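seq as requested:
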Amino acid sequence: MYKNLAAIAMAASCFAFPTHAQKNEPLKVGFVYVAPLADAGWVRQHEEARQAVQAAFGDRVKTSFVENVAEGPDAERVIRDLAQTGHKLIFTPSFGYMEPTLKVAKDFPGVRFESITGYKTAANVATANARYYEGRYLSGIAAARMSKSGMAGYVAGFPIPEVLQGINAFTLGMRSVNPKAQVKVVWLNAWFDPGKEREAAMALMDQGADVLAFHTATTAVMAAAQERGKLAIAYHSDMRKVAPDAQVLAVTHQWGDYYTQRTRAVLDGSWKPGQVWGGVREGMIRVGWFGSKVPKTVQEEVLARQKDIASGKLKPFTGPIVDNEGRVVLAKGQAMTDAQILDMKFLVSGVQGKVAQ
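struct tokens:
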């Protein structure tokens, strides 16, 4: 599934480490989770990846995790503790872990760090992220097909480019089907706050949204949609267990193969720092897990567009694109470069809201 990912990871190189020295001792691999471990969500996907690493290497590795670690000083303390206790590979999957990871990495040059969703590298720090926006675009197509009001709600964490990419791609996906579709955004300035997530979802439904999307860490939005008889797009993982009637589809993140490859690289001495940004083509993003209310024709349409993204035929950020203040961002026929996508700071036409300060 990750036929291109290995080549990308190996190509991004500037420094190699020797093979894990103690052949008879397992490689200790640590994981830091930004929220409590649950049955679905951001942390669940990384936990499944940790389990994939353990299953792949057996007694050659010893994996462990620390959950519900706040970004900031607490994260630095936990990451440092893992390094001090013999962990030679540490995965830190949250944007706010980037600076604490870099700080600890300076003091432990013999430890390899994987900053997931970060963008700064060092001699012993690699970064990796996924093109979440590709899945968001596809989910927007499904949302538009299923919405009766043409109004969607979006519960958003922080106004970083990654989140803006998702909101914009979702809106563009909706508008590829219904040019008049609208998306209302509520900013939480939090990744994990089930109470606020639920309140935001309820408020959006009260304002006419009959399908919801979100960029937060829990299933609260899905549960709210299920309770109110509305629809929602699951994010991170399949959430039909929580919202069997509400789920339209799930945009899932697949980290297992990447984590396994990076662990293998430490074991065989080929680990190198670099930057990976993979999407549908590399198998890091997948949509599917359709709800029972979604017609077969809609499922087939979404899966066909997923194939188009994988082949490069469909690029979600292709002009004309206008922001929601009327400025032309991209001319007709042009496709955004990766640099432009990574620096996204606007909301597209059709989004009701502003970039939170």
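Confidence is low (pLDDT under 50) at residues 1-16.
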